Each structure stands twice: as C-alpha cells, then as structure tokens.
Amino acid sequence: IDEDTPPKTLSSRSISAVAEYILSGRAKRIVVMTGAGISTAAGIPDFRSPDTGLYANLASLDLPEPEAVFDLSFFKVNPRPFYVLARELYPGNYHPTVSHVFVRLLAEKGLLHHLFTQNIDCLEREAGIPANKIIEAHGSFASQRCIECKKEFDGAKMKEFVSRGEVPRCEEEGGCKGLVKPDIVFFGEQLPKAFFDRREMVEQADLVLVMGTSLQVHPFAGLVNLAEERVPRVLFNLERVGSMGSQADDVLVLGDCDEGVRKLADELGWREELEEKWRGL
Ligand code: APR
C-alpha cells in the first residue's frame, strides 16, 4: 500500500483485504480488544472524547481530577462521586451495539480466540458472546464486595442503593461497616489474574481487531504489541491510537466503529445475519 494513500481509500480497500483473509480460512484465532468506543452508540459515554466523554463531564462532582472517580484512595475518603456516576452507568438500561454483535458472530463461526474488553457495562455478555471467551480486564458491575472484609454484597440490594444514588456499606455481623464497591478495577488496583494468565492468547492470534479504545491505559494497552509482527492488526476507531498503523500489516478503519464493522460484514457476506442478530437481541 503506497504511503500517500489517504486513510479513507486505505481503509475501504483494506477492509476487503481483511475480509478476504478471514474468508480464506487463514484467520482462525481472532483476538478482539475493545474499549468504551464500542458502547457510545448504546448511549454510554466514553471516557476521553473531548465534549461527550465522562471525564469532560464530571466537573459537577468537584473531583481533584476526573480519574479520581475511579481511584481507590479517593473512593475510601469520598465514595459519593463514584455512586453518582454508577447510577448513570449501571447495566440494565443499555442495549448491545452492532459492534458487540459482530464479535458474537465471530464466536458463533468458531473464529473468536478471545475478547479482551476494558468496558464495565457487561454489554459483551448481553450480546451473547460466550463468557469463557471474554476477559473483563477492568472488571464489571456484575458483582460487588466490601473493600475491608471482602464479603460479597447482595446484587439486588446493590441495585437498590445504586438506583437511589446511595453509598452501600457492609452489613457483616460484628459491624464491619466497610464501603461496598463493585468489582471494577480502580486505579491503584490489580487487574484480574485471568488477564495476565490469558495474555498468551494474543501471541497465538492470527488476526487482531482493536475497537473503540484510546489505548491510553496500561497494562491493557500493551496487549496490541503482543501479537507476532506478521499478524494483521485492524483498528476500528474514530482516530488513530497507540502503535496502530506502525506495522506493515496494520489496517486503519477510521470512523464510527459500527460503520466500519458493517462494511467488513458486507465484504464477508455476513451483513444480513449481523443485522438480524442485532435486531433480535
Ligand atoms: N466509533 C469509533 N470510535 C469511537 C466511537 C465510535 N462510535 N466513540 C468513541 N470512540 C473512540 C474515541 O475516539 C477514543 O479513541 O473510542 C476511544 C475511547 O477511548 P476512551 O474514552 O479513553 O475509553 P477507553 O479506551 O475504553 O478507556 C480505557 O480508561 O478510564 C479508564 O478504566 C477506564 O476502561 C477505561 C480505560
């Protein structure tokens, strides 16, 4: 691909190259990495988009800096801002996007080696992607526990507290009274062990798809550099990010990820099936 090809032409021509590679049967172990950009179409703001991103809209919570809302030491002192945000982000009111359903299609066609997501919205599960194929690298709202005694907190009660924007505390006998926090990985916390155990899945990949992430947060962002040099890496994102585009077989599909995924589905002959599955959710 000659250097001066404007990105637009590059992406449309290369999408057919990616489709051809998949249809040739040479892509059997596809690893997908996703971020908040695949859920914005579901109505969930991402973090860093200039105007619409969460970090640009937390000013009302008078945080020392936006990321403090997910910072463990800040949460221990003042859990309220997090619970204001949790009320807005809590799963149950959102619908998976076409991009989520595309990943499910890959799984159903036996092509999904693994999905690594940074998202905490559980939309991958709701889209029907098999749980054993998903790594929620930054945890999720699916469970919660006391940060002191680690006792799990009841899910129904959690929903109650979150819907009222109130801060739940541990009810352990003997009055632990510790703060309850969803099993979301806060800044200052370790990622789940499974994330580190399954990073080798990326080394085994024969195709890497990166969708809707700024690749600003490590160690997740480092995943994209674990694939072997010759393995094609495709970015579906509004803008170029991280090391994407630096390798010969990188493909940049810049723009709305649902649009890019629909173009790829067209080239694969999966478009009808994709739309049907998405409507059927
Ligand atoms: N189509 C394509 N790309 C999109 C779309 C869209 N509809 N909407 C947003 N994007 C892109 C943005 O341009 C940006 O590059 O998705 C990316 C989202 O980046 P972030 O907001 O930084 O989200 P993410 O990469 O998931 O953040 C990583 O940061 O705050 C922590 O733990 C949090 O998991 C989160 C991590």
UniProtKB/TrEMBL annotation:
Residues 8-271 form the Deacetylase sirtuin-type domain. GO terms for molecular function: histone deacetylase activity, NAD-dependent; metal ion binding; NAD+ binding. It comes from the Eukaryota. Zn(2+) binds at residues 146, 149, 170, 176. The lineage of its organism: Eukaryota, Fungi, Dikarya, Ascomycota, Pezizomycotina. Transmembrane segments: none annotated. Its cofactor is Zn(2+). It comes from Triangularia setosa. Keywords: Coiled coil, Metal-binding, NAD, Transferase, Zinc. This is NAD-dependent deacetylase sirtuin-2 HST2. Belongs to the sirtuin family. Class I subfamily.
